[in-house]
From TrEMBL:
CDD domains assigned to the protein according to its UniProt record, in alphabetical order: HTH_ARSR
HTH arsR-type domain location: 1-94
Pfam families: HTH_5
Lineage: Bacteria, Pseudomonadati, Pseudomonadota, Alphaproteobacteria, Hyphomicrobiales
Domain of life assignment: Bacteria
Species the sequence originates in: Rhizobium alvei
Name used for this protein in its record: Metalloregulator ArsR/SmtB family transcription factor
Family matches, as InterPro entries: ArsR-like_HTH (IPR011991), HTH_ArsR_DNA-bd_dom (IPR001845), WH-like_DNA-bd_sf (IPR036388), WH_DNA-bd_sf (IPR036390)
SUPFAM superfamilies: Winged helix' DNA-binding domain
Length: 113
């Protein structure tokens, strides 16, 4: 497995959980304290910390500690490999569908003749 694929696996794993996606959605509005991120989830602080660790390991967020307060912020550029991979997949499938459509139109035309 190449380094790029390993990064994608970490990113997709981090994005696979709805709690982590909701945390990212909140962080898209701006940095937030861990306690503020945990409140809407209904989970205990240690559980939320594990979710944050997964996001941080994937590079999707960064955190900083100031005294007893840990603040998290989203890292927008970390999403680029996911977007690139999805764009590549979209292009592959669009080409396949275009070829399929051309083949279907040709078959219909031949049937009408």
């Amino acid at each position: 497995m190449t380094k790029h694929q390993a990064d994608l696996s970490l990113l997709f794993h981090a994005l696979s959980d709805p709690t982590r996606r909701s945390i990212l959605t909140r962080l898209a509005e701006g940095p937030a304290r861990v306690t503020d991120l945990s409140e809407p989830t209904g989970y205990s602080l240690p559980t939320v910390m594990r979710h944050l660790a997964v996001l941080e390991e994937a590079g999707l967020i960064a955190s900083a500690k100031d005294g007893r307060v840990r603040t998290c912020a989203i890292v927008p550029e970390a999403f680029k490999p996911v977007r690139t991979w999805l764009d590549e997949q979209r292009l592959i499938w669009e080409r396949r569908l275009d070829r399929f459509e051309a083949m279907a139109l040709k078959a219909m035309k031949e049937k009408d003749e």
